[in-house]
Each structure stands twice: as C-alpha cells, then as structure tokens.
Write a structure and sequence with these properties.
By secondary structure, the protein is of the alpha+beta class. Helices cover about 20% and strands about 35% of the residues. The protein has helices at about 35-40, 45-50, 95-100; strands at about 5-10, 15-20, 25-30, 60-65, 70-75, 105-110. The strands form two sheets. A four-stranded antiparallel beta sheet has the order 2-3-5-4. The two termini are about 15 Å apart. This is AtuA-like ferredoxin-fold domain-containing protein.
C-alpha cells in the first residue's frame, strides 16, 4: 500500500462506546467501507495499546465486523477502577473513544472497493 496521506482516524471513521466496571468497549466504524482495510491493517491491538499506554490497560481484544466496516475493542483495566470508583471523570468510555479516534493512519491514494 502506497500512502498518499496521513489522516486522523476521526476523519474517516466514528466511534461508539460503552463501559462496565473497569472495562471499556470501543467500536470504530468506517464512514466509507473502502477505508476499512486500511483501518484494519493499522488500528491493531498493538496500536490501541500504544494509544492507551499511559492508562496501563490489561487485556485488549479486537473483534472484526467486516460486513459493517467496523471493529470492536474490549479493553480491560482502563477505567481507573471503573466509572463509579474513578476520581477522573474523563475516564468514561466516550472520552476514550475520542482519544482513540485521534490516532493517525496512512490512507492510500485509491482505496480498493471492500471485499
């Protein structure tokens, strides 16, 4: 893949979140399915771990949903003990999704059709 430009993930995708206890659930959904392969290739468990390294997450699992041009991350131990236990209000899932969507990735000149 030849990179034509570097973009923030929020330029080509949006997020949905949830949290339960000390676990955050972050979905990344491509606006255009043609960008899905680039997102899958670069928004990996390792990339997510780097984004949240300062929060010292536990296990991170990624689930791919190609028919929706989406992926879902389940991140353990990332909410400062849980929403009700944390002194930091910014640790809620919605804030973490915004943080992840600031990740920069390379976007090819002519993304291939999904498939």
């Amino acid at each position: 893949m030849t990179a034509a430009k570097r973009v923030h993930l929020f330029e080509i995708a949006h997020g949905r979140t949830g949290d339960k206890g000390n676990r955050s659930n972050i979905s990344v959904i491509a606006y255009d399915p043609r960008h899905y392969d680039s997102i899958v290739a670069q928004v990996t468990v390792a990339a997510v771990r780097r984004v949240f390294a300062h929060r010292q997450p536990g296990e991170i699992r990624r689930y791919l949903l190609p028919q929706l041009a989406a992926m879902n991350f389940v991140i353990d131990d990332v909410l400062d003990g849980g929403v009700n236990d944390a002194l930091n209000l910014d640790s809620h899932g919605k804030s973490l999704a915004g943080y992840l969507l600031d990740l920069e990735i390379d976007l090819p000149d002519d993304p291939r059709p999904p498939g």
